[in-house]
Amino acid sequence: MKKKDIKILLVDDEPDILEIVGYNLTSEGYQVITAENGSEGVKKAKKELPQLIILDVMMPEMDGIEACELLRKNPDLKNTIITFLTARGEDYSQVAGFDAGADDYITKPIKPKVLVSKVKALLRRYKEEDVSDTVKIGSLVINRDEYKVTSKGKEIILPRKEFELLSLLASKPGKVFKRDEILDTVWGNEVVVGGRTIDVHIRKLRE
């Protein structure tokens, strides 16, 4: 993934922090999105689906800990790296951040060069954890980026949900997925469906 395609969401109630950090990251070629409190940050994260979120801990309306907990419940952000901005020596904030689901933390006062190096390291972690756009199992090829499936070189047209189901099952061959896990990953909160619906889609895939 190129830098210009990487989105970083910066959430802080201090305008100076937004300006300084935003400037340094933009200068590196990243897309930077800003929010002034946790509530706004959660909304923008759901809309923009950034690769990295930098959260301040103490903010009005919704603090960083609560925001992080909400973000970690969103399946669309499961691969997003979340790091906190904390004052040096704030052990409680760091522990609470990790408990909420954060991956790392950056201490204040912020040093631009250290910040940029830290961000690069965090994004390398994202790249390592990110799944490949293409999955190959025998003669079956699944291209997640283009929503395309081919078998023995012949393209197979699948409805979106059946494609997502196939993509999930193929991501970890041999694993037995629980129904709740399939529902959460493929359907999320968009509609209430039962186990029968999963059975129907799986039967169609086998055909």
TrEMBL record:
Domain Response regulatory: 7-123
CDD domains in UniProt: trans_reg_C
One biological process term in Gene Ontology: regulation of DNA-templated transcription
A Pfam entry, by short name: Trans_reg_C
Residues modified as 4-aspartylphosphate: D56
Alphabetical keyword list: DNA-binding, Phosphoprotein, Transcription, Transcription regulation, Two-component regulatory system
Gene Ontology molecular function: phosphorelay response regulator activity; transcription cis-regulatory region binding
GO cellular component, one term: cytosol
The entry's DNA-binding region: 132-207
Keyword match Transcription regulation: yes
Domain OmpR/PhoB-type, chain residue ranges per copy: 132-207
Listed InterPro entries: CheY-like_superfamily, OmpR/PhoB-type_DNA-bd, Sig_transdc_resp-reg_C-effctor, Sig_transdc_resp-reg_receiver, WalR-like, WH-like_DNA-bd_sf
Entry keyword annotation includes DNA-binding: yes
Protein name, entry field: Response regulator transcription factor
Provenance organism: Seonamhaeicola marinus
Taxonomic placement: Bacteria, Pseudomonadati, Bacteroidota, Flavobacteriia, Flavobacteriales
